[in-house]
Design goal:
single chain, 290 residues, alpha+beta, four-stranded antiparallel beta sheet, 5 helices, 21% helix
Length: 290
C-alpha cells in the first residue's frame, strides 16, 4: 500500500507542472482507512462523468453506483476525458509514470473521442482522477522545445597540483568545483559530446568513447532528463537540470589499461589504477518547435 501511495504522490507532483502551471496536485495519506474527498472548487466547470468499474466485475454493475472499495492492488478501469491539445503528451507521461522499477503498475490506452483508458490499482486511479480534473481547463501547452545536452567525460587521478584543465574547455568549471572538495587532480578529456532532441523524444549519438541516449522535458524552468551514458562503464539515471549550469552525474573507477593509455600512451609499462571517470552534463533550451 505504501508503494502505491508513494507512486500516486509522484504521479501528481511530476505530471501537473509539465502540462500546466495552473494545475494543482493532491496528497494522499498513507492511512488505509476511508478519507473524505476534498470539496470541489466553487468555480470549477462541470466535467464529463468518469466511467469506472472493477476489471472482471459483473456486466450489470450500475455506472456511478456506490460500491465497496476495491483491494488496493486490484486493477480498476477508468475512462477520463483528455484536455484539448494535451492528449498525446498526457498519454505518454501516464505510460512512463505507471511503472515501478521495471514492472508496470498500470496500462494506458488512447480511446476515440479524446478520451484515455487507464487500468491501474484504485489508489493510483485517485491520483490520476485528481490530475485530469485539474487539467480540464488548462490552457494549451507551448510547443515542445528542442533541448541540447552537452556532455564531458573526464578522467581524473590524484596529483600534487591540478593539471589538464585547459583540455576541458567549458567543462573545466565543473571539475574546478570537484577539486575544491576532493583535492587536485590530473585531468584528461575522454570524450565530449553534444546531443539535441525534442521534448519527449529519445535520441542517441556515439562519440569517440561514449554512446549516449537521452530523453528530455521541461518542468517549469528546469529540465528533466532520462540518460543512458555508456563508456567503459554505463550510467543510467533520471536527473533534474537547471539550464546553463553544470551537474556532475557521477564518478566511477576506470579501466586501468585504458587509463594508462590516456595518461602515459601506448606501451605504458604499468597500468594506472587510481583514475576515476567523471560524468559532467549541462542543459541548454534552444527553442520551441513551430
Amino acid at each position: 500500500m505504501n508503494k502505491l501511495v508513494r507512486t500516486t504522490s509522484f504521479l501528481s507532483v511530476l505530471l501537473l507542472p509539465v502540462l500546466s502551471a495552473s494545475c494543482r496536485s493532491s496528497d494522499w495519506g498513507a492511512d488505509s482507512g476511508p478519507q473524505a474527498p476534498p470539496p470541489p472548487a466553487a468555480s470549477a466547470p462541470a466535467l464529463p462523468k468518469v466511467q469506472t468499474h472493477v476489471v472482471g466485475a459483473p456486466a450489470n454493475r450500475t455506472e456511478g453506483a456506490a460500491e465497496r472499495p476495491a483491494d488496493p492492488g486490484r486493477p480498476v478501469l477508468a475512462t477520463y476525458p483528455l484536455p484539448r491539445g494535451l492528449g498525446e503528451r498526457v498519454v505518454g507521461l501516464l505510460r512512463d509514470l505507471l511503472v515501478e522499477g521495471e514492472h508496470p503498475i498500470g496500462r494506458v490506452t488512447l480511446a476515440p473521442g479524446d478520451r484515455v483508458i487507464v487500468v491501474a490499482p484504485e489508489s493510483i486511479q485517485e491520483g490520476v482522477s485528481e490530475t485530469m480534473k485539474s487539467l480540464a481547463d488548462a490552457p494549451p501547452p507551448p510547443p515542445p522545445a528542442t533541448i541540447q545536452l552537452h556532455y564531458w567525460l573526464v578522467l581524473g587521478r590524484p596529483a600534487a597540483q591540478a593539471s589538464g584543465m585547459e583540455r576541458l574547455g567549458e567543462g573545466a568549471v565543473a571539475m574546478d568545483a570537484i577539486m575544491r572538495s576532493q583535492g587536485p587532480l590530473d585531468l584528461r578529456l575522454v570524450d565530449e559530446v553534444r546531443l539535441a532532441s525534442m521534448e519527449g523524444e529519445w535520441a542517441e549519438v556515439g562519440g569517440r568513447k561514449a554512446h549516449i541516449e537521452q530523453r528530455v522535458a521541461r518542468i517549469g524552468d528546469r529540465v528533466i532528463a532520462d540518460l543512458n551514458v555508456g563508456a567503459v562503464g554505463n550510467l543510467r539515471t533520471r536527473v533534474q537540470l537547471e539550464p546553463g549550469k553544470f551537474v556532475v552525474l557521477g564518478q566511477v573507477g576506470y579501466d586501468e589499461h585504458e587509463a594508462a593509455l590516456a595518461y602515459v600512451g601506448p606501451g605504458a609499462p604499468e597500468p594506472v589504477q587510481d583514475a576515476l571517470l567523471y560524468y559532467v552534463v549541462r542543459a541548454e533550451i534552444m527553442g520551441s518547435a513551430d
